[in-house]
Amino acid sequence: MPKLTNNPLSDPSNWSPETQLVHGGSRRSQFNETSEAIFLNSGYSYPTSQHAEDIFTHKIAGHNYSRFANPTLDMFQDRMALLEGAEAARAFASGMSAVTNAVMSQVRAGDHIVAARALFGGCRYVVEDLMPRFGVASTLVDGRDPANFEQAMRPNTKVVFVESPTNPTIELVDIKAVADIAHAHGARLIVDNVFATALFQHPLKLGADLVTYSTTKHIDGQGRTLGGIVLGSKELIEGDVHTLLRQTGPSLSPFNAWLLLKSLETMPLRVEKMTSNAARIADYLEGHPKVVRVAYPFLKSHPQHELAKRQMANGSTLMAIDVKGGREAAFKFSDALSVILISNNLGDAKSLITHPGTTTHQRFTEDVRLESGITPGLLRLSVGLENVDDLIKDLEFGLEQI
Questions:
Q1: How confident is the model at residue 334 (pLDDT cuts 50, 70, 90)?
Q2: Domain range 12-262, CATH architecture
């Protein structure tokens, strides 16, 4: 007897995120495997020459080369699109290749980009250093006030690019307000949503045109593999985003796509627990006499707390800690930790801490760092899955060494 098709849950868009991340995008082979198959091939054969031509001219669906199309990547892209509420997605070899594609695919020589100045070092490089080499000017603004975006817009502005929360200072951008400004000027908004994750913030629903992730972070979440993804409308993804991916080749490997598919199954469990731990730690650190400030979106002391509550479902796993005593104190604190590892990665099952001024943002001048809120005593803490009491004891010991 054939399966009934009138069950409302036969439509994956009706599933909850947890179900989407277990079953979304699945394509079973003739062997009916339960775990997604890995298609490690680079090329594909065709039954006839006409069949090959029809695939290359998009008359029929199919795959012709794994640089830009692969069944395992299809499953990962479709699963992420379901979670994000996007029409389409394309996966990349790293988060930075995804960001570079998202920005570069939407501009041409003579265009202009407006970006929030509080960006991850690599993202700021793309906007501030790389794109001007190809005739695309950029303007950086304080992203905390939407009016700054309005003032920076020009007739040739084609892209507005932001992170929210920002790396590493945990500032927020009012995504809906900035989307309205961008669209009023005929520009597109690109949002790097890594810190908030697709579980806690939905930029497309707030008006963004493209969303990017380093899948290396919470999506893999176990320090195993690099990856990135860009999501948005079919028009943008299957148009300029896909074309640039196809012709320049920053492709995600099928094996890494398979790893990410398996990681998505546990992402809600991991991120919810890590966020719960982060909230406890933020509360503990906020009142510590050796801490100048703690930046965590769901702390009431965060200057943009109301915006965080409005556009985020939870505070996520990252925080910034500014310790008294500057760089020397920050180093003593970090070096004394035993459970928490010193690493510039984030979103991992293991708790990680880094000093942005000497790692992720070290190439900038001191003036640029201070303008972005990166003080000498600032540390970025990515909270993991360890016992939260152990983490607090570790932090307490580290602070005692200052």
A1: very high
A2: 3-Layer(aba) Sandwich (3.40)
